[in-house]
Amino acid sequence: MGSLGSGHAAQFHVLAVDDSILERKLIERLLKISSFQVTAVDSGIKALQFLGLQDSTYQFHQEVEVNLIITDYCMPGMTGFDLLRKIKESTSLKDIPVVIMSSENVPSRINRCLEEGAEEFILKPVQLSDVNKLKPHLLRKRAEEQLSMSNKRKTMKECNSEELTNS
Amino acid sequence: MDGIVELQRQLVEYTTSLYDEGFLDDQFIQLQQLQDESNPDFVVEVVSLFFEDSQRLLNELANSLEQQSLDFRRVDAHVHQLKGSSSSIGAQRVQGACIMFRNYCEVQNVEGCLKCLQHVKNEYSLVKSKLETLFKLEQQVLAAGGTIPMP
């Protein structure tokens, strides 16, 4: 088993959501340059479909893991806020960090998003320095997950060895 | 060698003037920094998308403002999009013109909106031709065997 953080860590996969093709191209490039794997979609509905969620029911187990969702706030139909809410309401998806992007600096909007569970709120135009801020969140989350998994394994091993000695 | 140096000088001078005159802002430099050997045409590609997007939005705006029953929210939505994309590529003057436009939408001033549309169109034409000239100068430097001076 590989140790925590040694060698080349598996790439983080980011799902980017923006209805503007120009913005998608930009965010995709920013993320790729920062060594993220990227899937870009043009609507909240497509994002939910990609995540395996349709009509609010979890349809299938995602083969591809998504580590972060970054979405524009102002989109026709389903806004970024609507998407955020749907993700946080889903038992299967609620732990995926969601970042909101917006060209407008509206404090009430920012608060609403953060209260709904958004990890960060980024003002457009998005820059490399904004994207760099995302990695620590993801690395820490991954470290926490790996630690909790290795603790579970340890506990199971202890239970198993107890059973063996007691039988 | 002299030829390349002269072309590079022209390019730097032209680029500087674009920033000095407010046509472009720092965001354009950010775009250039995203370009490398693996993505050598990134800036041109993004700017091309901007041109396509803007043309479409300007056409929509012209249509919307001609309607009998003006839907200001619809007009505002289009201007918002144009403001966003111009901001994303660093087209500062276009972005500024859009901000003014949105103010007139908010107070539902038709005359103001029409004037702003004209203003946005003018700024867009200007920055489009400036960027096309910039790209041409870059091509000349590259064709002469030179490299493009980094910002």
Strand and helix map with partners:
The complex is a heterodimer of chains A (about 170) and B (about 150).
Chain A: E1 13-17, H1 21-33, E2 37-41, H2 44-50, E3 53-54, E4 57-58, E5 68-72, H3 80-89, E6 98-102, H4 107-115, E7 120-123, H5 128-132, H6 134-166
Parallel strand pairs in A: 1-2, 1-5, 5-6, 6-7
Antiparallel strand pairs in A: 3-4
Helix pairs in contact in A: 2-3
Chain B: H1 2-20, H2 26-33, H3 42-66, H4 72-89, H5 92-106, H6 110-143
Helix pairs in contact in B: 1-6, 3-4, 3-6, 4-5, 5-6
Keywords:
heterodimer; A: 167 residues; alpha/beta; five-stranded parallel β-sheet; two-stranded antiparallel ribbon; elongated; disordered N terminus; B: 151 residues; mainly alpha; Response regulatory domain-containing protein (chain A); transcription (chain A)
Notes on the protein architecture:
- The complex is a heterodimer of chains A (167) and B (151).
- Helices cover 46% and strands 17% of the residues of chain A.
- Chain A is elongated.
- Chain A starts with 12 loop residues before the first strand and ends with a helix.
- Chain B has 151 residues and is mainly alpha-helical.
- Helices cover 79% and strands 0% of the residues of chain B.
- Classes of the chains: A alpha/beta (167), B mainly alpha (151).
- The interface between A and B is medium-sized, with 15 and 21 residues.
- Chain B: Keywords: Cytokinin signaling pathway, Cytoplasm, Nucleus, Phosphoprotein, Two-component regulatory system.
- Chain B: Its main location: cytoplasm.
- Chain B: Pfam families: Hpt (PF01627).
- Chain B: One of its GO terms (biological process) is phosphorelay signal transduction system.
Nutshell version of this structure?
Chain B: This is Histidine-containing phosphotransfer protein. The complex is a heterodimer of chains A (about 170) and B (about 150). Helix content of chain A is about 45%, strand content about 15%.
Q: Tell me the CATH architecture of chain B.
A: Up-down Bundle
CATH class of chain B: Mainly Alpha
Ends of chain B: how far apart?
Answer: 21 Å
Question: Radius of gyration of chain A, rounded?
Answer: 18 Å
Helix content of chain A: 40-55%
User: How many separate helices of chain B?
Assistant: 6
The secondary-structure element order of chain B is HHHHHH
Class of secondary structure makeup of chain B: mainly alpha
